[in-house]
Amino acid sequence: MITLSEINFRDPYILPVPEKNRYYMFGTAGATAWSGSPQGFDVYVSEDLQLWSGPLSAFTPAADFWADHHFWAPEVHRYNGKYYMFASFKADGIPRATQILVADQPEGPYVPNSAQPVTPTGWECLDGTLYVDQQNKPWMVFCREWIEVTDGEMYAVQLANDLSAAVAEPILLFRASQAPWSVGGKEGQYVTDGPFLYACANGELLMLWSSSGVKGYAMGLARSASGDITGPWTQDATPLYGEDGGHGMLFRDFQDKLLLAIHSPNINPQERPLLLEVVEVDGTLRVVAAE
């Protein structure tokens, strides 16, 4: 058994499965995040969020799988009785894309849900996440990368009910530079990373997403006052977390406590999963200061 401080993961995503009394954590392996040839995706398993067993292999690509590097940001959603992994992949000469994988159990094994990625062909994309709207229609929210468009973009696209493909054109939600807390790079680039959707009790729909901030990697909140995925979206002025950490997601533990999972610091190979308690107050989120 190991602790979170011993796991070199970026982009941690934790799936609670109450009937198994287990938490399943997926993420980007720090050792192959930027170089090397990843062997797939691993999962760690815990009963208490303190001690973890693993790593266990959750996805091993077949010999003919189209991507061979930059296996990034796997997140797993339970949907219609199965488990779907949204993850980003890349190959030489092929733009980065989000592909959806599927399994019958949370730990896998995961296999491609369709032959092709679900992000637009020819776009440089990453960090697809699932959102199911009030009409029970599935959507994917994803980023179009700054390396292609300079000012990183956030999109939503409606998916087929079996999550096999997009069924409409992507809708532009916002650009990274619209957030007052987002800081541009030396070449004028603004980053969009790691969207995650959260519905507030007052009907507002929030999106956690990450970019560069004053103190390094940071994570802010965008909000749709209409409660619809299509917006219009506005940006909170200050980041939810601005201390060189981000790519966050929210989940409730088995005691119903709301927790935020991020990686921090954003320095390879020092990045580690970090769990922070969060409270919802008047349509927004606040990180609870550690005692």
TrEMBL record:
<dbReference type="InterPro" id="IPR006710">
    <property type="entry name" value="Glyco_hydro_43"/>
</dbReference>
<comment type="pathway">
    <text>Glycan metabolism; L-arabinan degradation.</text>
</comment>
<keyword id="KW-0326">Glycosidase</keyword>
<keyword id="KW-0378">Hydrolase</keyword>
<dbReference type="GO" id="GO:0005975">
    <property type="term" value="P:carbohydrate metabolic process"/>
</dbReference>
<comment type="similarity">
    <text>Belongs to the glycosyl hydrolase 43 family.</text>
</comment>
<dbReference type="InterPro" id="IPR023296">
    <property type="entry name" value="Glyco_hydro_beta-prop_sf"/>
</dbReference>
<feature type="site" description="Important for catalytic activity, responsible for pKa modulation of the active site Glu and correct orientation of both the proton donor and substrate">
    <location>
        <position position="127"/>
    </location>
</feature>
<dbReference type="Pfam" id="PF04616">
    <property type="entry name" value="Glyco_hydro_43"/>
</dbReference>
<protein>
    <submittedName>
        <fullName>Glycoside hydrolase</fullName>
    </submittedName>
</protein>
<dbReference type="GO" id="GO:0004553">
    <property type="term" value="F:hydrolase activity, hydrolyzing O-glycosyl compounds"/>
</dbReference>
<dbReference type="InterPro" id="IPR050727">
    <property type="entry name" value="GH43_arabinanases"/>
</dbReference>
